[in-house]
Specification:
Order of helices and strands: HHHHHHHHH
Largest sheet: none
Strand content: under 5%
Shape: flat
Number of helices: 9
GO biological process, one term: amino acid transport
Membrane topology: Multi-pass membrane protein
Structural class: mainly alpha
Radius of gyration: 21 Å
CATH class: Mainly Alpha
CATH superfamily: MetI-like
Protein name: Polar amino acid transport system permease protein
Helix content: over 70%
Number of strands: 0
CATH architecture: Orthogonal Bundle
Family: Belongs to the binding-protein-dependent transport system permease family. HisMQ subfamily.
Subcellular location: Cell inner membrane; Cell membrane
Number of domains: 1
Length: 221
């Protein structure tokens, strides 16, 4: 009981530090997921409907980013960009790196979802006089969304976990705050377990959001 009491005492003392770290983690994750998803949709559309040159350029971008470790992207966004006159703070550089990484994965997810739709769907839409924009909005996108939503949820969860890497450039997210607390009270196991529980809660919320959207977009039986 002594160790448990000591942990809760230290947890209460450090509650504001943990909440600040949690807020930074949620903010970074949310911004990178939104920005990465929007850019990823453009990447996916370019891979499917772009001209040959555009497809080659976007394919090179996607393969390069997907093959690059997230930590390298984080360090490049913070240190390399500054050498060419683009000064970003740790928070901005971290969001940029994660958003770029997210976009490459979402782009592939969107591409796969769109290409899985039978071509007859597009031809039928043309036959009834729909423009490409109408075909995409009312025929292709709803079907693709239902197909790639589970994969998008996994990517979003990966962005939350990848946010822990931003501590190397000084972003005071949840993991770095937890390490600072541990350096003062040496309750490593307890606080790392608590941090893991908070990360699980965030990802569980993402998973439940994905299920909610999946239900809303499901075809009525």
């Amino acid at each position: 009981m002594t160790e448990i009491s000591a942990f809760f005492d230290q947890l209460w003392i450090a509650r504001f530090v943990i909440l600040k770290g949690l807020g930074v983690t949620v903010s970074i994750s949310l911004l990178s997921i939104i920005a990465g998803s929007l850019l990823g949709v453009l990447v996916g559309l370019s891979l499917v409907y772009g001209n040959r040159l555009l497809r080659l350029v976007v394919r090179a971008y996607t393969d390069f980013i997907r093959g690059t470790p997230v930590l390298v992207l984080v360090l490049a966004s913070y240190y390399v960009l500054s050498t060419i006159g683009i000064e970003l703070g740790p928070f901005q550089a971290g969001v940029l790196a994660l958003a770029i990484f997210c976009s490459s994965h979402v782009g592939e997810i969107v591409r796969g979802g769109l290409q899985a739709i039978p071509k007859g769907q597009t031809e039928a839409a043309k036959a009834i006089g729909l423009t490409f924009r109408q075909t995409f909005a009312y025929v292709l996108w709803p079907q693709a969304l239902r197909q790639f939503l589970p994969a998008w949820v996994n990517t979003a969860a990966e962005m939350v976990k990848a946010s822990t890497l931003l501590s190397v450039i000084g972003v005071a997210e949840l993991l770095l705050r937890t390490q600072e607390i541990i350096s003062r009270n040496f309750l490593s196991l307890q606080f790392y377990f608590f941090a893991g529980l908070l990360y699980f809660t965030i990802n569980y919320g993402i998973e439940r959001f994905g299920k909610y959207v999946e239900r809303k977009t499901a075809v009525p039986s």
